[in-house]
C-alpha cells in the first residue's frame, strides 16, 4: 500500500493536514510581510483584501494548471538552429505559451516572489517554505514532462493546500495595528 492510497482512505485527516500546512505556510508569509512593512498595519484591512485577491487568483489558476498539466513531447525538444527557435523552445518548456491565464499567473507569481523576498522571515521558516515550494515544483515538473495526470484526490489536496495558504495570509495580515503587539 502506498502513501497516496493511505491518504485517500483517511481523506478527512489528509485534507486537515494539507489545510494546516497551507495555513502555516500562509501565516509565515503574512507575518514576514507584517514585520518587514510595519506601516501596513495601519491599512491592514485593505492590504489583506488585496493579498486575498491576488492569492485567490493565483491559487485558482495554479489548481487549474495542476489539474490539466500541459505536456511537453520529446519531439518538441530539438536543438534550435535559430534564436527564434530557441526562444520558442524556451517558451514551450516554461509553459508560457498557454495564453492569458499563464501570463496572469506568471505576473502574480513574480510579484509575490519579489514582495516576499523583502519580507523578514526566520531561517527555519524560510527552509519550510522552500521545501514545500520545491516539492510542488517537482510534482509540477513530473506532470509536465511525463504521462502523470493527477487524480481528483490529488487535485483536491493541492486545492486545499492553496486555500490554506490564502486563508493563512489573510488571517495574519487582516489584523489592525491595535489588534496585536509588535512581532519583534
Describe the structure.
By secondary structure, the protein is mainly alpha-helical. It has one domain (13-175). Helices cover 72% and strands 0% of the residues. It is built from 7 helices and no strands. The chain has helices spanning 3-9, 11-36, 44-67, 83-94, 100-117, 123-145, 152-173. Helix 2 (11-36) packs parallel to helix 7. The longest helix is centred in the first third of the chain and has 26 residues, at 11-36. The protein starts with a helix and ends in an 11-residue tail after the last helix. The mean pLDDT is 79.
Task: Write out key terms for the chains shown.
72% helix, mainly alpha, 184 residues
Q: Which shape, going by the Cα principal axes?
A: globular
How would a crystallographer describe the biggest sheet? none
> Helicity, in percent?
over 70%
How far apart are the termini? 46 Å
- H/E element string? HHHHHHH
Number of domains: 1
Number of helices: 7
Strand residue content: under 5%
**Structural class of the secondary elements?**
mainly alpha
- pLDDT below 50 for ≥5 consecutive residues: which ranges? none
Q: Provide mean pLDDT, rounded.
A: 79
Rg from Cα: 19 Å
Q: Give the beta-strand count.
A: 0
